[in-house]
């Protein structure tokens, strides 16, 4: 694959390739294989009642990356931002610009929607992604915690 990534919203016909990429994302983060989770996320991407959206990067007619995102309200600033939940690029094409193209498209869409920020988290040891992120965004001082309900 030598083409430039074209970024577009995920479409129903992308299901097979999207599933392959999402499985790769889950494997990268050492999440167990779970068809119920994959089915649920796929359904969210096509449900107008659920505010989870997807972008895909396509090169020469093949999906090579995905990004899942949603709006989030920011009471501290009285604004709405875009939260990037998941970003994944097929390892075979990492470094091709597909990841950057996905984030750039998300930022352009956020600007067009009047959003105040595009925000995401990544694993501390995800050095390859962090190298790209450091070149295109500001690392924050915030530490993230999870508490089970």
Automatic annotation (TrEMBL):
It comes from the Bacteria. The keyword Transferase applies. Keywords: Acyltransferase, Transferase. Pfam families: Acetyltransf_1. GO terms for molecular function: N-acetyltransferase activity. Residues 5-149 form the N-acetyltransferase domain. PANTHER family: ACETYLTRANSFERASE, DIAMINE N-ACETYLTRANSFERASE. This is Acetyltransferase (GNAT) family protein. The lineage of its organism: Bacteria, Bacillati, Actinomycetota, Actinomycetes, Propionibacteriales.
